[in-house]
């Protein structure tokens, strides 16, 4: 199996520690803790770093609208110090539905905000006193008041073409979500244009797609169904952001049908519109052999560190545990 990391997404389930300990025992390198509109991710990540020994714990993701970049730098450095450097910063825009309707913030200038955010977080983590004159942030005179700073890798969850270029220019890693394995090569062209502009190479960016993953030796159809449910929810319920993204990467008719299905019959209607081709291209599911072949396709297309994104909302505890153990 070629998955390097694990994420369960969203809020942490009660048995999160057991899941991450399973992932660590399976030899996975990273665990990415999501944050949506339930529990804060920081206490969970703190708990996980205290209970693990080798796996990197990562924010997956801090959105760039609801915490200041200085606060993210403080949080990252504190968690890295707690764990001897086992923390990675995952940043992203989230989407207008969450930013505006839950947080009440304006979803404005996302590309400029992401660029300035990364630059500021990296500047504070360097240990230097920060002087920054940007379009959105104007900072002067402060450094982190700590004995040691950590050069935490910074990953960006970017899907749009311009944002992928920016990621290639200045980020340490790229986190695409719902990216079909058939589109990885095309998507990387924009990342590589960014690395060229930043006088870097594509090898400087860890390509870490989040791949909807569910594996069952005894009930592969149920595993495929859980991945289908995840795709349906993201494309149907999360506004136009993910629908437009999968449309841009080859599934335009399907994206429209999924959104229409959600409007007609919410989750069930959306699931009916998710095709087998979408499940095969976007996910890694079914039997262990089928999932392994899917991960191989992502790696062959240019992924460095695929992250298995488990649909824990739609899969049983037994299937989640089986999936994690099969990732070794």
TrEMBL record:
<dbReference type="Pfam" id="PF00296">
    <property type="entry name" value="Bac_luciferase"/>
</dbReference>
<dbReference type="GO" id="GO:0016491">
    <property type="term" value="F:oxidoreductase activity"/>
</dbReference>
<dbReference type="InterPro" id="IPR050564">
    <property type="entry name" value="F420-G6PD/mer"/>
</dbReference>
<dbReference type="InterPro" id="IPR011251">
    <property type="entry name" value="Luciferase-like_dom"/>
</dbReference>
<feature type="domain" description="Luciferase-like">
    <location>
        <begin position="7"/>
        <end position="304"/>
    </location>
</feature>
<protein>
    <submittedName>
        <fullName>LLM class flavin-dependent oxidoreductase</fullName>
        <ecNumber>1.-.-.-</ecNumber>
    </submittedName>
</protein>
<keyword id="KW-0560">Oxidoreductase</keyword>
<dbReference type="InterPro" id="IPR036661">
    <property type="entry name" value="Luciferase-like_sf"/>
</dbReference>
